Amino acid sequence: MKRITRMRYRLMAGLFVEIALQSSPVQAAASPALKAELTSSIDAQAKQIQVMVDQVFSFAEPGFQEKRTSAYLSDILEKNGFTVTRGVAGIPTAFTATWGSGGPLIALGSDIDDLLGVSQYPGVATKMPMVAGAPGHGEGHNSGMPMMIAAAIALKQVMEKNHIPGRLMLWPGVAEELLATKAYYVRAGLFKGVDACIFGHVNTGFTTAYGDLGLNGMVSVEYTFHGKTAHAAGDPWDGRSALDAVEIMDTAWNFRREHLPISQRSHYVITNGGGQPNVVPDLASVWYYFRDHDFKSVRALYETGTEIADAAAKATGTTVERHVLGYAAPNFGNKPMAEAAYANIVKVGMPKWSADDQAFALTVQTQNHLKIEPLATKVQPLSTPETRGKSGFGASDDIGDIMWTVPTITIGFPSNIPNVTFHNYLAAMAMATPIAHKGAVAGAKAVAMTALDLMTTPKLLTDAKAYFRDVQLKTDTYDPTLGPDDKPAIWLNEKTMRELRPQMEKYYYNPDKYPTYLDQLGVHYPDGTLAPGTTG
Hints:
The protein has 16 helices and 15 strands. With 536 residues, it is of the alpha+beta class. A seven-stranded mixed β-sheet has the order 1-2-4-3-5-13-6. A four-stranded antiparallel β-sheet has the order 9-10-8-11. Helix 2 (32-44) runs antiparallel to helix 13, helix 3 (46-59) runs antiparallel to helix 4 and helix 7 crosses helix 8 (295-316). The longest helix is centred in the C-terminal third of the chain and has 23 residues, at 434-456.
């Protein structure tokens, strides 16, 4: 009898353990073996990553005009078994690429646009535009989506082989430098049903962060004044100058600055100042960025600017209309996701820089009078609210809109040179060199491992959603200033590219003929010089 009782006890105990395991969330992250498979897959894609990074660099397309870039990247995803939907959210160069079934839906994204006026030969350590006045990748957005695509292909391979349920959605950040699309993505419902999002951005180090990241929210708005033409000398009294209204608005705003919170940042350009001096301008426009640290303050700045515009119109007998061209929410990273990602970043480690890589970084810094600092060989610490303190960077990034929609983190990957000036030709110098390529490979590994953790660890997703709901949303509420009639400004930069693209096309990378873009351009690496007589 005792023996039967003991056997029954063991059977019952085993049954209870089995039930507990089936009903409890998995506590461990993805196994080291699965992560080793991801690493091997990404290493096998190193050549393709180099080609993608170089190709996108050569297209050099600014916001809303990323036509070649978008087609090139989405075609690669389609050929690798992803279902591509183009022109999402009413934006011709935006797309989603999805794959998988069952399980969590994890979004992977990075920006693809570049900046006006910073054309630069890669691998050359002095200012040398390929096409004078043309746009260029003076921040490094050419590296992010290639990194994400490599991570997604590796994930797909490992998930298929190991029968892991889950879904991926890749998306490009269009016109990020204009902060002009991600709020429209959210409004269009692109992230409906997404469980978590991993965003990638070029950096000089390798890290991630959580909590309030210190970046400002922002609204981009253009005020257009309408007046009445007249002969500026013969009968100016019959005219109503739209340009006068713009100038009065700008003057009034500059006086008002003294009485605004010191946390605000605001800046403007006159986009239309009239035609010729002897015609009273009946049309003039001014484009403002209003930035501050929280949603309420951004809205207050926007409303103040609009009041001043209305007053300027009344003062000049003109009328005014406004068009929101873009919006960016403050940035807020998810703690459980950031901690998981950081563990993977540490596991991946920094790229193995060659002597040539370090030499090129030193040449760029020396020749451009920058602070001398070698390429980092150690992973940066996890950035937390405690280690950052009260930060106030001033700049903005519209990934914030997605951060306030689903649990999201940004992984910064090491594809650029320490102490270069971003939004500048200096930041383009390394972006089609081995430095950019190696940083993208490392970043792809960290992204893929973190996405797999999210796929295979229910508790991680549960914790991420709890932090989003119970911590982040307790601090503020998503409040974009987009109106129902506001639409993406897809016409921006169209004229610039129509004029410059024919000159830029001869510099497009041909990977079938040249192993790297530097080879095609005749650039000597690492000494940072261009072969005499080489034009691409």
